[in-house]
C-alpha cells in the first residue's frame, strides 16, 4: 500500500514486471471492483487507487475529475520506470482516464475505457441535489443498497463492502461526484493522443453512454469500440471472464476477438 495526496493505493502483482496496470473504479464503489481483473493480471505490477471520498481514501467536496486525473498521472510518472503503461477505467474512473489522456497524451500506452459518459446532461444535473436529498436517507437500509448493487452487478461476495462504503459516503460528496459525472465533456484535444484505446459499453446501457463511446472512437485515431451484448452498466463485474479474455487478447494482438461485436 502507498499513499499519494491522501489517496489509498493498493499494490499487487510483480513490481519488477515490464508492464504497469492501473485500475480506476466507478463512483460509489472502490478498488475492490477490480478483484477479478487483479487476479487475472497477477504477473503484472498493478496499482489500484481508491478515488477521493471512496473506500479508504478520504475526501471532502468538491470532487474534481480534472484534479484526480492530475494526481494519478503524477503517480504513473513516478512509478513508470520505463514500463508499458495500461490503465483501466470504469464509469467515473473512465471519465478520469479520458481526462488523464487529454492532459498527458503520450503518457499511457493502452487505455480500456468502460462506460464513460462524455456528453454533459444539464437537465439531469439540475435534479441531482434534490434527488439525493430525498433518497440519501434510504442508503442505510440494506434492501435499498441491495437494489443499487444489483444494477452494478455487485455479487454477494462484495455486497457487505459495498454496503459499508455506501454508509460512509457523505451526502455532500455524493452530490459532488454526481455533478462532476453529469457535467464532464471530452475535450477535442484528446485527438493528439498516441494512446491506443479499447472503448466498451453494454448493449443495455443508456443511449447517452453508447453515443459517448461513438464520440470517443471518432476523436481518436487508435481506437476500437465494443458493444457487449445483453450487458448493462458494469461489464467487468457482470462477466469478468469474458471481459478479461477480450482485453487480454486486445493487449496482445491489437485486435478484438472475432466472436465479439465491434461498434
TrEMBL record:
Upper lineage: Bacteria, Bacillati, Bacillota, Bacilli, Bacillales
GO CC terms, sorted: membrane
Any Pfam family: Abhydrolase_6
Domain of life: Bacteria
Keywords: Hydrolase
Record-annotated AB hydrolase-1 domain positions: 21-244
Gene Ontology molecular function, alphabetical: hydrolase activity
Protein name: Alpha/beta hydrolase
